[in-house]
Amino acid sequence: MASDSKKTVLITGCSSGIGLKIAVQLAHDPQERYHVIATMRDLRKSGKLEAESGHSLNKTLEIKQLDVTQEDSVKKCLDGLPDRKVDILVNNAGVGQIGPIESLSMEDIRKVFETNFFGVVNLVKEVLPGMKKRGSGHIVVISSVMGLQGILFNDIYAASKFAIEGFCESLAVQLLKFNIFISLIEPGPVNTEFEMKLMEEVSRSDFPGADPETIRYFKDIYLPSAHEIFVTLGQTPDAVAKATVKVIGMDQPVFRHQTNILYTPLTALKYADNTGNLSVRTFYNLLFNYGSMFHFSLNFLRCITCKCFRRRVMPV
Ligand SMILES: NC(=O)c1ccc[n+]([C@@H]2O[C@H](COP(=O)([O-])OP(=O)(O)OC[C@H]3O[C@@H](n4cnc5c(N)ncnc54)[C@H](OP(=O)(O)O)[C@@H]3O)[C@@H](O)[C@H]2O)c1
């Protein structure tokens, strides 16, 4: 189905959220540059993607099964492609995890790494030989600002994204030799099913092993603040997909792209002070000592990002 002039793009985790939107936007590319292999671990969840892909379904977009944690599933999917050819790999599949570390089982902790870290490694290992042979390729990873800056109660999720950032940073240098690019897309909060899935998990747990003080500030301080951040700063999955599609279209793709400019000051804190104290203490004080400043900052951001304010300061 893919003609030689089209680039084959394989995307993981397309049943919902950012992955679904990237698949649809690429499949609807006005210049028809892409043939999209939109994968998901459970094909029973393909209805939403089928509906949104419309006329491109089975033309510029094909849906296939792929579970990033299962080597057999990855191999089977790739074996089903002509010459196993993938020009652009988009590693989007990911899972979150929040809560006091003492209350998480090692099995649940490992599951996050199985998807967010080993899942990406699994796919990269499979596509690299072909890309190297052809002397071209692009590997895109949907990372997170939490791959740059750890956030409390997201210890394991942030660690999995830090791990993938280190992996990509190391690979990027060697792969340039083969004309293969790597790009890390680093969104801040995005309003997808991601947050809802986390909240559902949290509501089912009574946090065994965690002390009452930690549980109290997780529930009373962290959860409401996190929700406020999603409401105030959250992007749409369409906006993150648009930023990703732009990076995919670049002749010389950038290595890093933060999709939410409102988040850049937070990640910049880390690089402004190499003792690390500035970012650690700023986050601590904003949450625990100066709660009113935290709310003020979010309301300020809400004002300067609202459409009517932007129209006044940046008239078109
Ligand atoms: N939402 C945010 O605030 C945010 C912020 C920064 C970065 N990100 C990153 O963006 C990516 C997409 O997340 P999203 O916000 O679009 O959330 P989402 O709507 O929950 O999408 C996650 C996707 O990953 C899939 N997935 C999970 N485990 C998988 C596996 N083992 N194999 C294949 N697919 C699997 C899910 O499939 P099922 O439907 O089968 O579960 C789903 O399609 C993730 O890597 C996430 O870390 C999200």
UniProtKB/TrEMBL annotation:
Please cite one Gene Ontology biological process associated with this protein: retinol metabolic process
Instruction: Identify the Pfam families for this entry.
Output: adh_short (PF00106)
**Entry's InterPro entries?**
17beta_DH, NAD(P)-bd_dom_sf, Sc_DH/Rdtase_CS, SDR_fam
- State if Lipid metabolism is listed as a keyword: yes
- Quick one: which residues bind substrate? S144
Active site (record annotation): Y157
Q: Which top-rank group of organisms is this from?
A: Eukaryota
UniProt key word Zinc: no
> GO terms for CC?
cytosol
Q: Which SUPFAM superfamilies match?
A: NAD(P)-binding Rossmann-fold domains
Please tell me where NADP(+) binds in this chain. Answer: 13-41, 67, 161
Q: Which UniProt keywords apply?
A: Lipid metabolism, Oxidoreductase
Instruction: Recall the GO molecular function terms of this protein's record.
Output: all-trans-retinol dehydrogenase (NAD+) activity; estradiol 17-beta-dehydrogenase [NAD(P)+] activity
Q: What family does the Swiss-Prot or TrEMBL record give for this protein?
A: Belongs to the short-chain dehydrogenases/reductases (SDR) family.
Q: What is this protein called?
A: Retinol dehydrogenase 8
Please give the organism: Pelobates cultripes (Western spadefoot toad)
Q: What is the lineage of its organism?
A: Eukaryota, Metazoa, Chordata, Craniata, Vertebrata
